[in-house]
């Protein structure tokens, strides 16, 4: 038996829509695999009641098929579905690493990115690699049509997850079809600032570079209480706040000493808006970890 822990991720980071992603220290999915004549899937943990166990309908089933690696697969969900934290991507990334090792397929982590993204296509209708890439590779990732660029980074963050769900399909439905030249220039500036910030582990540059006037404002309308949660996080010292992935999770970047205050400010602000939530105090961290024989 092989066990893989694959982390939650936060895609977009505001200015990097469909391009940027980071691996988070916590939460994570844990996937266990054993060779079997045909693939079976069982799911436990956060939101497992919403996840199909039919291999034809589960992201992990698509990964097993792509690697020609039938297995008994057990998924323990730490990353709630429809959270904006790359839930399906974490399972797909974990399965890709586990099945690649189980059947000695010899694929590199980079080569597993498009395979894990196949699973994502089942959920969102399109194969986005901006969650599977950081879950597989760790750190900060930049996904383009030409491939993935990765930087090890360790920037403190708080992710606040409200007890509401936003489907990726709905969140993609509100993405504007075009942007002005001014918005394009702003976005390039912000995205470049963010990328430099990641390479320097500089929360101030990263927070500043997350600003986005194109996609994020449309998506915040889908999250009850977003504006007051953002304000509360900034007042408590966050260097930048944005929607995590397709939402409803909210990502705040910060210096370590402000993390605890930001987490409670965000939860309190959601509470004031009548929404229950929980906050993860974590950091940009490493990618999927393989444990042999359950060790
Ligand atoms: N970049 C994607 C989005 C991530 O924001 O829609 C979710 O798949």
From TrEMBL:
<dbReference type="InterPro" id="IPR006204">
    <property type="entry name" value="GHMP_kinase_N_dom"/>
</dbReference>
<comment type="similarity">
    <text>Belongs to the GHMP kinase family. Homoserine kinase subfamily.</text>
</comment>
<comment type="function">
    <text>Catalyzes the ATP-dependent phosphorylation of L-homoserine to L-homoserine phosphate.</text>
</comment>
<protein>
    <recommendedName>
        <fullName>Homoserine kinase</fullName>
        <ecNumber>2.7.1.39</ecNumber>
    </recommendedName>
</protein>
<feature type="domain" description="GHMP kinase C-terminal">
    <location>
        <begin position="198"/>
        <end position="270"/>
    </location>
</feature>
<dbReference type="GO" id="GO:0004413">
    <property type="term" value="F:homoserine kinase activity"/>
</dbReference>
<comment type="pathway">
    <text>Amino-acid biosynthesis; L-threonine biosynthesis; L-threonine from L-aspartate: step 4/5.</text>
</comment>
<keyword id="KW-0067">ATP-binding</keyword>
<keyword id="KW-0791">Threonine biosynthesis</keyword>
<keyword id="KW-0808">Transferase</keyword>
<keyword id="KW-0547">Nucleotide-binding</keyword>
<dbReference type="GO" id="GO:0005737">
    <property type="term" value="C:cytoplasm"/>
</dbReference>
<dbReference type="InterPro" id="IPR020568">
    <property type="entry name" value="Ribosomal_Su5_D2-typ_SF"/>
</dbReference>
<dbReference type="GO" id="GO:0009088">
    <property type="term" value="P:threonine biosynthetic process"/>
</dbReference>
<dbReference type="InterPro" id="IPR014721">
    <property type="entry name" value="Ribsml_uS5_D2-typ_fold_subgr"/>
</dbReference>
<dbReference type="InterPro" id="IPR036554">
    <property type="entry name" value="GHMP_kinase_C_sf"/>
</dbReference>
<feature type="domain" description="GHMP kinase N-terminal">
    <location>
        <begin position="59"/>
        <end position="139"/>
    </location>
</feature>
<dbReference type="GO" id="GO:0005524">
    <property type="term" value="F:ATP binding"/>
</dbReference>
<dbReference type="Pfam" id="PF00288">
    <property type="entry name" value="GHMP_kinases_N"/>
</dbReference>
<keyword id="KW-0418">Kinase</keyword>
<keyword id="KW-0028">Amino-acid biosynthesis</keyword>
<feature type="binding site">
    <location>
        <begin position="80"/>
        <end position="90"/>
    </location>
    <ligand>
        <name>ATP</name>
    </ligand>
</feature>
<dbReference type="InterPro" id="IPR013750">
    <property type="entry name" value="GHMP_kinase_C_dom"/>
</dbReference>
<keyword id="KW-0963">Cytoplasm</keyword>
<dbReference type="InterPro" id="IPR000870">
    <property type="entry name" value="Homoserine_kinase"/>
</dbReference>
<dbReference type="Pfam" id="PF08544">
    <property type="entry name" value="GHMP_kinases_C"/>
</dbReference>
